[in-house]
Design brief:
The protein is mainly alpha-helical. It has one domain. Helices cover 67% and strands 0% of the residues. It contains 4 helices and no strands.
Length: 94
């Protein structure tokens, strides 16, 4: 699930491999393991991702740009760290 966060932050579709033909996936995987050739599996991934995008766009309109939850959390954490550091400096005797 956390692997999807960068895609969500950039308003990209999440990949789905539901309708990938099993034979194409198996041939691509075997090509990686036996021949150390990623080209076929890459093509399967690209095809599946394009299909996912088409399905996603048919179900849901493109999202408006909103700040990512991780970016918001990062900003509030930095703010909290800054206030702690400033408070620590003020309370530290000279």
């Amino acid at each position: 699930m956390r692997d999807n966060i960068p895609l969500i932050c950039q308003n990209l579709c999440l990949p789905s491999f539901i309708d990938v033909p099993e034979s194409a996936y198996l041939e691509g995987t075997l090509g990686v393991y036996e021949l150390k050739a990623v080209e076929l599996l890459r093509d399967v991934f690209v095809w599946a991702y394009e299909r996912s995008c088409q399905r996603y766009m048919a179900i849901q309109p493109p999202p408006t740009s909103t700040p990512c939850a991780s970016a918001i959390a990062r900003r509030s954490l930095r703010s909290w760290e800054r206030s702690c550091a400033v408070g620590w400096r003020r309370s530290k005797p000279p």
